[in-house]
Amino acid sequence: MRRLPQGVVAALLVLPSGGYLALFFGLPLLLAFLGSFGLYARGGDGGFTLRHYADLFGTQAYRDGLVFSTYLAIVPTLVSLAISLPLAMGLAQTFPGRKLFNALYKVPLVVPGIVAAFIVMTLFDRGGLAARLLTPIGIDLPKIVRDDWAVGVIIATAWKAVPFMTLIIGGSLGAIQKDIILAARTLGATPLTAFWRIQIPLALPGITAAFLLTFIGGMGAFAVPNLLGPVYPLPLSVHMYVNAFERNNWGLVAAMGTMLSLISVLVLLAYYRTTRSLRTAYGGEVR
Amino acid sequence: MSQITLTGIAKAYGTSVAIAPMDLTVADGEFLTLLGPSGCGKTTLMRMIAGITLPDQGAIRINGRDMAALPPEKRNVGLVFQSYALFPHMTVAANVGFGLKMRGIARDAAAERVRAALALVDLEPLAARYPRELSGGQQQRVALARAIVIEPDVLLLDEPLSNLDAKLREHLREDLRNLQQRLRVTAIYVTHDQAEAMALADRIIVMDKGRIVEEGAPVDLYRAPQTRFAAEFLGQTNVVAVTAAGLLPWNTGVAGPADGMVSIRPEDIAVTPALDGAGRVLSLTFLGPAVEYRIDIGGTVLRARDSGTGTAILPQGTQVDLTLRVPPHPLQGVA
Amino acid sequence: MTARSGLHPSDGRWITVGLGASLLIALGLPLIVALLWSFMDPATGWFAPDILPPSYALDHWEWAARNGDIAQALLLSVGIGLAVTALTALLALPTAYALAKLPFAMKRAVELFILAPLIVPGIIVAVGIGTIFFRLDLAFSIPGVILVQTVGTLPFMIRVLAATIEAIPNDLINAARSLGAGPAAVARHILIPLAWPGFVAGGLLTFISSFEEFEKTFIIGSPFVQTLPVILWGYLGGRVMVFPTAAVVTFILLVPMLIVFFLAERVLRDDVMAAGMGKL
Ligand SMILES: Nc1ncnc2c1ncn2[C@@H]1O[C@H](COP(=O)(O)OP(=O)(O)OP(=O)(O)O)[C@@H](O)[C@H]1O
Ligand SMILES: [Mg+2]
Predict the structure, then answer these.
(1) Cα B114 vs. chain centroid, distance in angstroms?
(2) Residues B169 and B292 in one domain
(3) Pairing relationship of beta strands B65-66 and B16-26 according to DSSP bridges
(4) DSSP state, B126?
(5) Predicted confidence (pLDDT) at residue B112 exceeds the cutoff of 50
(6) What's the CATH number where B96 sits?
(7) What is d(CA B267, CA B271) in angstroms, rounded to the nearest whole number?
(8) Alpha carbons C97 and B171: distance in angstroms, whole number
(9) Is A105 touching C (CB cutoff 8 A)?
(10) Any idea what DSSP says for residue B139?
């Protein structure tokens, strides 16, 4: 018996999860993609058509939904980034109780999105606790839940995303050798300069990865916008659900899914562009 | 009874050749040392014997049995890694017992053999420790015990002492030699330290760029090297071109070979002060047991080593005479 | 003043105070409010402008204790979480090993394909699989939910495991093999024990993300597979909003998660988690 070549061994080892994902992820996605053009579609006649895309882009509610989905992806991500970056920096310092804080800040990571939505309701809905606290001192809280700017959705999504981003950004910052920063300081960089010119660029792959994953989470979210978002527009994810299970309009659902996936892939490509220079500089290994 | 035979064994990584086609036989019970500069393919050769790296061509036989189809776990080869490769999550005893466990040996019998192996390397009291709680030398001995406890047909040691300090190295080197002779196991030992190679080996193989340059018993290889590479790699030497008349350049009256190069070991040159001497001391280095002189003689610079205890140390600029204690040794195939 | 930061850490107590206050507002306050809601007395209610409920009662907790649906949902959530974690770990280990240790053609392509489920929003995956599950008769079933959740958890597990396995020196594996361990024994005695931090981190996050997963479970399983988040959805998104009941379910959902989380926090290493996701 000859020993198997390494390539064959690798293929056999990749097979279980690769096959699994091909079957339960690749295939459905492919079918959805084809289905969005009317090919092999459930209930369709099987001919190529752009009807579903025409439907998607020809309907005001869906166009607004696409924009709104993108909005719900970008804004909470930016908000969480603005909180996570200083938080990660702060947690890297030494201070009393650091261990405890390091565990506590991660709690929202394990809190389901629906619970986050519930919490936002109890606090910020009409007659919620925030209003009860602020009204006596003369502050009239604007509408936050089911408002036009989806502030409630943004709060709930960012609340859940901050620990996730902080964890990844903190990991990337922590992986930078302390000597590199000290070297910059001995060369005359102030702490702030060292932070912007050395730490941020080196941690960029981690920061952008966190950004990307949060972005995608926000774009596909269904439960939180449904509970906290405005009545109009509805994000595409909610339209997908309604069209799939209440109207049985699978072709349109597939077109919507394809559009959302397309945006995700574009963001992924942007990520690779941003981090490419760092990848080559470190031989693909940023540590 | 374990004899290793390599025939036409070769390995390349992409276009870079790690081992050029090579034949090598190691006799039963022999202690063979592979000596060569960094990157010459020593580790690659060992890994091919152990079955970790597969050769591109050629055959490896142990006791006549072709190893090609055998994965490492079926070869019964004990390998001591340069990095020791101790399992960090197992105690010393568990590390040593691992190979026995894999062979399905009963717990009691295995425990007894582990104890004996640890006694052999003087580590019995540390059986319950974890590798990170051991010094470098202790880790090395655990790695050795782990390799010998399985009673391998062949023991392969890849620079096992290179991470240790000089004192410990010398000590363990003796232990190793004694152990190998007691077990009478066939051993291949990789090093790029020539002193270690000579102290340990029955036979030394000098390698360069994936090829065997020269081989022989330590004494022969040191005193009568055939090649300039081996002469220079094993200790220090002076390689001197002889004149057309077959004489050394400074014309001491000693005849060299008809043409070509000779090797003269520094310790074979006796230095005596003489007012009209042909040589002059350029510089000197005190080495402890010996003094090394750089001597200019007729435009040639030679190293000479004087280990006479109590003799006066000659200052720089002293005129000296040189005499050779043994005839200069001719080298082959060098210009 | 500026010279004191960075190289010479300034007085860390200000950080403690600042972080403590933020955590109290962002984390403590919401949980306390939710807790108050769960103890609301239905006889008096809790209406604006009352900051605290006028009286407390255990009615809603008693209701939850008597309600078989909630206990069943809790069991179901735990069961699905365990099954997803086991399935994910089983599928992930061989691939993680290949990615970490073996050279092979198109490795980058395989890596990207394995990453893809993280890039594509879950709702698309769920709706897409839904159409296939209908044909396979897996829709609205517990196995269907387990399968669809695993699609989302597999990428993270593979990446965390691959990062941990990559850190295991090759020579440990070679040493084990030359001592007589075959591939299975190497996996059992060397790989799995040494990659354990990766299993813990990956397994934990897998369990948590399965336990809290809503979108895919809802689309594939509802209304027949009622996990805790699906039940909670019913109380919040239905015709009437039932805050006290929702608050009780919130805690039934949250407490097991927090217990798992704080147990794990002691063995979990941040670098392992970050290694899985810090670079795509
Ligand atoms: N996995 C590999 N991929 C590519 N080239 C390799 C690989 N392993 C070894 N080589 C190359 O093969 C040659 C021989 O390597 P090898 O490790 O056998 O050298 P060595 O004699 O053991 O050196 P050292 O004394 O430094 O340990 C070197 O040029 C090395 O760069
Ligand atoms: Mg080597």
Answers:
(1) 29
(2) no
(3) unpaired
(4) G
(5) yes
(6) 3.40.50.300
(7) 10
(8) 40
(9) yes
(10) H
Report the b/e string of A134-147 with b at 16+ CB within 10 A. eeeeeeeeeebbbe
The one-letter amino acid code at A135 reads T
The fraction of chain C above a pLDDT of 90, given in percent, is 27
Question: Among the three residues B231, B247, B279, which one is the final residue of a domain in this structure?
Answer: B231
Q: Decide: helix, strand or coil at residue B4.
A: strand
Q: Residue B194 domain-assigned?
A: yes
Give backbone dihedrals phi and psi of B37, rounded to 5 degrees, phi first: -70, 165
**Could you tell me if B259 and B248 are in contact, meaning their C-beta atoms sit under 8 angstroms apart?**
no
- How far is C35 from B63, CA to CA, in rounded Å? 77
Show the domain range for B245: 238-330
In tens, the pLDDT along C91-109 reads 999 999 999 988 888 888 8
In chain B, what residues touch A2 (CB-CB under 8 Å)? 68-69
Q: Do B252 and B113 belong to one domain?
A: no
d(CA A262, CA C110): 20
Domain count, chain B: 2
* Same domain? B250 vs B223: no
Nearest alpha-carbon partner for A255 in A115, A49, A73 = A49
Cα gap A156→A228, rounded to integer Å? 9
- Are A268 and C119 in contact (CB < 8 Å)? yes
Name the residue with the closest Cα to ligand 1, atom 16.
Answer: B41
Number of H-type helices and E-type strands within chain A: 14, 0
Q: Which chains touch C (3 or more CB pairs under 8 A)?
A: A, B
Task: Output the average pLDDT for chain C.
Answer: 84
Interatomic CA distance for residues A224 and C215, integer angstroms: 10
Please indicate, yes or no, if residue B313 is contained in any of the structural domains.
Answer: yes
Return the H-helix or E-strand segment holding A193. Answer: helix A191-194
Among A50-59, A242-251, B131-140, C171-180, name the one with the lowest average pLDDT: A242-251
Site to probe by mutation for ligand 1, drawn from B44, B189, B208, B233 as the one with most ligand atoms within 8 Å of Cβ, is B44
- DSSP 8-state symbol, B255: B
Whole-model pTM? 0.81
Residue that the structure tokens 């565990």 belong to: A103
What does the pLDDT average to over A136-140? 80
Which letter does DSSP use for residue B132 in this model? G
What domains can you pick out in chain A, each with its CATH number? 53-282 (1.10.3720.10)
Statement to judge: residues B40 and B158 lie in one domain: yes
- DSSP code at position B63: T
Provide the phi-psi class of B251: left if phi over 0, else alpha when psi is between -120 and 50, else beta: left
Domain boundaries, chain C: 8-57, 59-277
In this predicted structure, what is the pLDDT of residue B207?
A: 94
- Considering the domain boundaries, does residue B285 fall inside one? yes
Across the interface, whether the CB atoms of A175 and C278 are under 8 A apart is answered yes
Whether C220 contacts C145, CB under 8 Å = yes
Place of tokens 């090759």: C170
Which residue among B212, B231, B250 closes a domain? B231
Whether B190 and B264 map to the same domain: the answer is no
Q: Give the C-alpha separation, A218 to A155, whole Å.
A: 12
Dihedral sign, CA of A55, A61, A62, A64?
positive
Q: Find out whether A97 and C16 touch, Cβ atoms under 8 Å.
A: yes
In this complex, the residue of B81, B83, B102 whose CB is nearest that of residue C180 is B102
Between B162 and B34, the higher pLDDT residue: B34
Query: pLDDT averaged over chain A?
Result: 85
Task: State mean pLDDT over A138-164.
Answer: 88
The reply to whether CATH 1.10.3720.10 applies to domain C59-277 is yes
pLDDT tens profile A19-74: 999 999 999 889 888 888 888 766 656 678 888 899 889 999 999 999 999 999 99
